[in-house]
Amino acid sequence: MSKYSIEKIGLRYGIYAAVAYILFFIIMQIVGLAHFYWLRALNYVFLFSAVFMSIRDYKNAHKDSFAYLNGIGVGVVTSIISCLIFAVFLCIYLEAINPDFMTAIKENEMFGKYLNPYIAAAAILFEGSFSGITTAFILMPYFKKSHADETGQPVP
């Protein structure tokens, strides 16, 4: 497998994003702002940055053969890896490290009584992954202007 394969680039940037999510979460816990759930929307900045940089790096490494679906693929791998790592961390955190935080979520959220650490982690995984996949689709026109860029011929 190449140093610049979809999987390796996606894994690298997925880990970077996951570390950013985890550090942000820990900082929010330390400063006492973790109960403001709307702050988790700031994780999208990390997700967007990771997907953008992973597609950019893949494009730079494959200038002659950069394809639209490969760009989407590296963005998808990046988002799923980052969200999977964060979901596992969150599940461990809510189950073993700070179960009181899970209790607070259950008491303050509309559907909190139905939540447990596993469902919360799964929700984070799906929500973040779909946000990342959507971001990859949104970013690709920026990276892949048109088919004419490759062939020199206009797109029919």
Residue-averaged pLDDT, rounded? 87
In percent terms, what proportion of residues is strand? under 5%
Instruction: Identify low-pLDDT runs.
Output: none
Largest sheet: none
Give the proportion of residues in helices: over 70%
Radius of gyration (Å): 18 Å
Number of domains: 1
Number of strands: 0
**Separation of the first and last Cα atoms:** 35 Å
Query: Which H/E pattern describes the elements?
Result: HHHHHH
Number of H/I helices: 6
Structural class: mainly alpha
Instruction: Tell me, briefly, the overall form.
Output: elongated
Question: Topology of this protein?
Answer:
Elements: H1 6-30, H2 43-61, H3 68-97, H4 99-108, H5 117-143, H6 148-151
Helix pairs in contact: 1-2, 1-3, 2-3, 2-5, 3-4, 3-5
How would you describe this protein?
It is a single chain. With 156 residues, this protein is mainly α. The chain has one domain. It has helices at residues 6-30, 43-61, 68-97, 99-108, 117-143, 148-151. Helix 2 runs antiparallel to helix 3 (68-97), helix 3 (68-97) packs across helix 4 (99-108) and helix 3 (68-97) packs antiparallel against helix 5. The protein is elongated.
Offer a quick outline of the entry.
By secondary structure, this protein is mainly α. It has helices at about 5-30, 45-60, 70-95, 100-110, 115-145, 150.
Question: What attributes does this structure have?
Answer:
0% strand; 156 residues; mainly alpha; single chain
